[in-house]
Amino acid sequence: MPVQLLTTTAGVQSSETLAIYIFISGFILNGLLLAALIYLLYNISKLKKNPGFISEPTARPSTKKPAEQGVGQVIEKQILTLASKRGGNLSVVETAYYTKLSLELSERALVSFVTRGFAEIKEKKGACIYHFQGILTEYEKVTAKSLDDLLDDRFS
Question: Which entry of 25, 47, 92, 141 is 20 to 30 Å from 41 by CA?
Fold first, then answer.
């Protein structure tokens, strides 16, 4: 028995109405998706501007000018930079010459490193040399043994 399609005016109306409903719901869903996307983009941009937003740390250059930093910090930085260039050994005269500090101030700064345990005084050929233990010469860096080698030597 063949199936016949009944086309009545009521059937046509319901299929047209269904198509209209589908069409309207598509517009509504697209509108909601667009509104959600705009809402998310707005909040993301707001979060990036918020200083409380946790982001990956970035290296920031110091905004303090040398005059705003403590004078002691500036002097320490100059002396440590000089010590690293000179292999960790400095005299008072060298420090005064290369940092443009007075002899008295250079000596006080170097003694400060000694009293805080960052340097020690060694005497070479009658001159006081301030040696910074944490700064190695290039030769010391190249010939340094690894921790594994030191432990092997100790336990063998």
Answer: 25
